[in-house]
Each structure stands twice: as structure tokens, then as C-alpha cells.
Design brief:
Layout: H1 13-23, H2 33-38, E1 52-55, E2 60-62, E3 68-70, H3 74-91, E4 97-99, E5 105-110, E6 120-125, E7 128-133, H4 136-149, E8 164-166, E9 169-173, E10 179-185, H5 193-205, E11 210-214, E12 216-217, E13 220-221, H6 230-233, H7 250-262, E14 266-273, H8 278-283, H9 312-327, E15 333-337, H10 346-362, E16 366-370, E17 383-386, H11 394-405, E18 409-412, H12 415-418, H13 440-444, E19 460-467, H14 475-482, H15 485-494, H16 502-510, H17 513-519
Parallel strand pairs: 3-4, 3-5, 5-7, 10-11, 10-19, 11-14, 14-15, 15-16, 16-17, 17-18, 18-19
Antiparallel strand pairs: 1-9, 2-8, 6-7, 6-9, 12-13
Helix pairs in contact: 3-4, 5-7, 9-10
The structure holds acetamide (ACM).
Acetamide binds at residues 339-340, 370, 387.
């Protein structure tokens, strides 16, 4: 293993100081490529853009002598160990994680302060980098910032040459919205626990904190329910195109929940109802109004299925499913879908939602529904997820805005901005185009706080980037559609509106590409972005 021992302690003091000054950009050695390569990433070259950045002073250099100092707290130690786990393979340094203060090295520290639940301060100077927060989530988000301030090669799994410089200065950061989501459709095509974990790691890098799993649809039921076992074993036995599908056992679902929690993401499970239910209807004949189970479905049409609203067994079923799912979901929310219920009459839709929302509350969860739920009676505290497009009718937008004025919180997922499965252009092979083509600038360049006419800015709880999987089968497919749009969604959700600027953003976005290369993430090389030459 190659180790870089050419660090300050072994370098004559004066030369060491000169190197640090040069690296800080106070002066450079002409235009020598080596000096340029050594310049640390500017503190504001991060995605999502931090709330405030003060650059200045000499950088910190991670060396063989660097340790990770943590508070005497199991959770802070765990975050320190996670950070060391990222840094060790590429730096080749030992990076011991130890409790105790002292300003040298990398320090993770909890303190009272105006950080909120997820904010942090990152201070970097020649003696060390200190991340301070009032809650562990803030430390974790600060660690993601620290990662992005290091050269992209830090993400590699083999020892790289360095140097490992972090620019001097202070970042003070906290999110604009508390709900910063990404949705993965595991129903149209099933994705394994390992694939979901991989996506979670990618989301965490951009400070996404909600993982919405679309667990049921016409083409597949993906979560084991003990009281209705055929949902998973039969309803989960196929997918779009007729593949073998699959489902998560409860233990596997818990594994995802725990992994997400270790990255400070909350899992939001969705059981889509009363439409998008063919997999359930195929599994149990009694759920159908005519008592006849339809065949499993592997196409991509929507709007043809409905639970039987007048039958009591429907509510016994919903109660069992929500009870079992709530019991394995520590998160606050349960998403009940409610979109595209074209085979349910409006009166039945309202009746259904009036009966089902209290069941969610009974099991201690808060309802999220797609925005069609605002056409019923959204429960107190419910959130509506808006997925309209520019061309959505004024009446539909007004209905959502009215609900927002009446207290329903909004999650914004406009399909012609944030649906990651929309094709970028007519030449994109994967994805769909019903909401139009969504290039990177279109995806980024809008303001969630002023998006839906008539909806108060305070009703917007956040944004979410859904990824529907009719055309997606592999992690490479997921990543090609998510990158480079996902970081833009994350920035809309995290960064203050005052930092929003496409021209500055596209430069920061381009700078992420070597990191994706190092992480093995394939992405769409949009001509709108000034990518480095590859
Ligand atoms: C949706 O795209 N049907 C929510």
C-alpha cells in the first residue's frame, strides 16, 4: 500500500508553511499543473449550496497523523467511524476514531447552538476541521459537506496520492425544508435490498432525508404482510415485462429502514390505494366487487384497478396492512397513494379516504397522499404530494392550493420538473415522456416556495424527486436517470432561495462528475453542463 508520509511533521517547517500558503491560493507557483491540482476545493463548491460560507485562512491537510475526535456518545462515534470508513481506503491513513477534545484533526462535536435539527457549522484551519451541530443529523450532513470538499479521489477504494486538503474558512448551514425526499418505485420493477442501499448512499451524499418506497402497484406487491401472505408470494411474483419480481420480507424491510436511519433518512412506505391495486386484487378474489380475481398484470397502463369500496373486507384488509406496516416503520408517515383512481367513482373515492385515513392515525402515523387526496377530506396534519405539470388545469391547482390554505402541507414533485424517470431529451433511451422532456436546467430552475399559485409558502414542507421504474431494471438505469438531476432536487430542498442560480449551479454540478466516476455512478452528460473533459 502506498502511503503519503510527506507531511508537515517530516517537512522542514518553513517549506511546510510555504506549501500550505501555496495550497491556500495566497500565491501559486506560476501555472504549474501540480500546484493547481493541489488547490483545495472552494468551500462554496458544494451541492446543496450551503446557507453561508466564509472562506479564508490556510487549509487543513489530512495526513497520517490525522485522527477523528468524537464526543463521548455512541451515535457521534458511529458518525466518526462512518467518516473514517470513507477516508481510510483512499488516503491509506489509519484515521483512528477517539473520544476527546483538542482542536487538531477532524472533530465531530455536539453543542447547543442555533443549528436546528439538521444544521451544522464546519470550520477548517491549519490545525484541523471541526464540525459542530446540536443533533447527530447535523454532524452527518456536515460530514457529507466535508466529503465534497475533499478531492473526488477520496471516494475510491484504493490508495490515491492526495494531497488531502480542505480549504480554510467556515460554513454555517441548515436546510430550507425539513422534508427532502426521493421516491423509488420498487413495484414496476423490483429492486433488491443491496440496490436500495446503494441508492440510499447516493441520496445521503446530497442530504436527502426521506426515502419514499412505492411498495405496491398493479404490477407487484413488494412487502410481506403476514395476515395476507399471497400479497407478496403471488402479488409480488412478477413485474413490468413479466420478470420474476420479488418482495421484501419484514426482516429485509427493517434492514432497509435501519440502513436508511444510519444515513439519517426516514423511510416513507407507500401502499397505493384504492387504484393501482391489481396485484392485491389478483392475490385475493374477495377484494374484488365481483369476487373474481383478475390475472397478474405486467403492462404499463394505469387507472384500471380499484379496491371494492362498499365491501367491509376492504377495510379489514387495509387495517391489517397498515397495522403490520406501521409496526415495522419507525418513521412518522404512511403514504396511502390515492392517485389515478380512474376506476373508482368520486363518491366512492371520498368514502374510501374518509375510512382509511383514520386507520393510519389509529396506528400512529401521519397520512401522505398524492395530491388527488385534496379532492376528498385530507385528515388534519396530512401532507399532499403534488405531481402536476405546467399544463395541469387551473381548477386542479386551485383545489390543492385551497387545501394548503386550509392547513394541508405540501410536498412538491412536479412531474415536468422532478420526475426523474422523464427522458432528458428525445434521444434518452430509458424513461417515459408523458410529462415532457426534462433537461437538467428545467429540473433545477424553479422555486418551490412560489410554485403553486395560491398555496402559501409556509404550506410547502419540502420537495421530493420520484423515480418510477416502468423502464428501469438495474442500478445503472436508476443512476443514469437520477444523475445529474437528483442533486438539483436536493439543492432545491436544502439551500436558501437566495443561493439559487443556474449559472453558478451548473459549474458546481460539473465539479461533481469526477466524484460520480470514483463512485461508479454512470450519469447523463447533459450538454447544458460544462463537464470536465473525461
Ligand atoms: C403518479 O405519478 N401517478 C403519482
Amino acid at each position: 500500500m502506498r502511503r503519503d508520509h510527506s507531511t508537515t511533521p517530516r517537512t522542514p517547517r518553513i517549506l511546510g508553511a510555504l506549501l500550505l500558503v501555496a495550497a491556500a491560493g495566497v500565491f501559486t507557483l506560476g501555472s504549474a499543473p501540480a500546484a493547481e491540482a493541489a488547490a483545495p476545493t472552494p468551500l462554496n463548491r458544494v451541492i446543496p449550496a450551503p446557507a453561508s460560507v466564509q472562506s479564508g485562512g490556510a487549509p487543513y491537510r489530512i495526513t497520517w497523523a490525522t485522527g477523528v475526535r468524537v464526543d463521548d456518545s455512541a451515535e457521534v462515534r458511529r458518525i466518526g467511524t462512518y467518516l473514517a470508513g470513507i477516508l481510510r481506503p483512499s488516503t491509506g491513513y489509519r484515521l483512528p476514531v477517539a473520544t476527546g477534545g483538542g482542536a487538531r484533526g477532524i472533530q465531530l462535536h455536539l453543542a447547543q447552538g442555533d443549528f436546528g435539527a439538521e444544521g451544522y457549522r464546519l470550520h477548517s484551519g491549519p490545525a484541523g476541521v471541526t464540525i459542530t451541530a446540536s443533533a447527530p443529523a447535523g454532524l452527518f450532513h456536515g460530514v457529507q459537506t466535508l466529503r465534497q470538499l475533499l478531492p473526488a479521489a477520496v471516494e475510491k477504494k484504493t490508495v490515491q496520492p492526495g494531497p488531502w486538503l480542505i480549504a480554510g474558512g467556515t460554513i454555517e448551514d441548515r436546510p430550507r425544508y425539513s422534508y427532502r425526499g426521493a421516491m423509488l418505485d420498487v413495484s414496476r420493477h423490483f429492486f433488491t435490498v443491496a440496490q436500495v442501499k446503494r441508492y440510499i448512499d447516493q441520496l445521503a451524499l446530497y442530504k436527502i432525508n426521506e426515502l419514499h418506497l412505492h411498495l405496491s402497484d398493479d404490477q407487484g406487491w413488494r412487502i410481506a404482510i403476514d395476515s395476507w401472505p399471497r400479497l407478496a408470494t403471488y402479488g409480488g411474483s412478477t413485474e413490468v415485462g413479466g420478470g420474476k419480481g420479488g418482495y421484501f420480507t419484514k426482516a429485509q424491510y427493517r434492514e432497509i429502514v435501519d440502513y436508511a436511519a444510519s444515513r439519517y433518512l426516514e423511510v416513507v412506505p407507500e401502499i397505493d390505494m384504492p387504484g393501482h391495486t391489481n396485484a392485491a386484487l389478483a392475490s385475493y378474489a374477495e377484494l374484488n366487487c365481483d369476487g373474481v380475481a383478475p390475472p397478474l398484470y405486467t403492462g404499463t397502463q394505469v387507472g384500471f384497478s380499484s379496491l371494492c369500496v362498499p365491501k367491509q373486507v376492504t377495510y379489514d384488509f387495509v387495517d391489517d396492512v397498515i397495522r403490520e406496516l406501521a409496526a415495522i416503520t419507525p418513521g412518522r408517515y404512511l403514504h396511502i397513494g390515492g392517485d389515478e383512481a380512474h376506476s373508482t367513482s368520486h363518491a366512492d373515492y371520498v368514502k374510501f379516504m374518509d375510512r382509511v385515513q383514520p386507520i393510519v392515525a389509529e396506528y400512529g402515523k401521519t397520512v401522505i397522499g398524492w395530491h388527488q387526496i385534496t379532492g376528498a377530506h385530507p385528515a388534519k396534519g396530512a401532507l399532499a404530494q403534488y405531481w402536476g405539470v405546467d399544463g395541469t388545469s387551473a381548477a386542479e391547482k386551485a383545489q390543492v392550493a385551497q387545501a394548503a390554505q386550509n392547513g394541508t402541507g405540501l410536498i412538491l414533485s412536479p412531474a415536468d420538473r422532478l420526475y426523474l424517470d422523464m427522458k432528458y431529451t428525445s434521444s434518452t433511451k430509458l424513461g417515459t415522456k408523458w410529462a415532457g422532456y426534462v433537461e437538467v436546467q428545467r429540473s433545477y430552475d424553479w422555486n418551490p416556495g412560489a410554485y403553486l399559485p395560491g398555496a402559501p409558502a409556509s404550506s410547502v414542507r419540502g420537495v421530493e424527486a420520484p423515480l418510477w421504474s416502468e423502464t428501469l431494471k438495474t442500478s445503472a438505469d436508476i443512476e443514469y436517470m437520477a444523475f445529474p438531476r437528483l442533486p438539483g432536487a436536493a439543492e432545491l430542498a436544502w439551500s436558501p432561495a437566495s443561493t439559487h442560480d443556474w449559472n453558478a449551479y451548473k459549474v458546481r454540478l460539473a465539479a461533481q462528475a469526477p466524484r460520480w466516476d470514483a463512485l461508479g455512478i454512470g450519469y447523463y452528460r447533459s450538454p447544458q453542463v460544462p463537464w470536465p473533459k473525461s
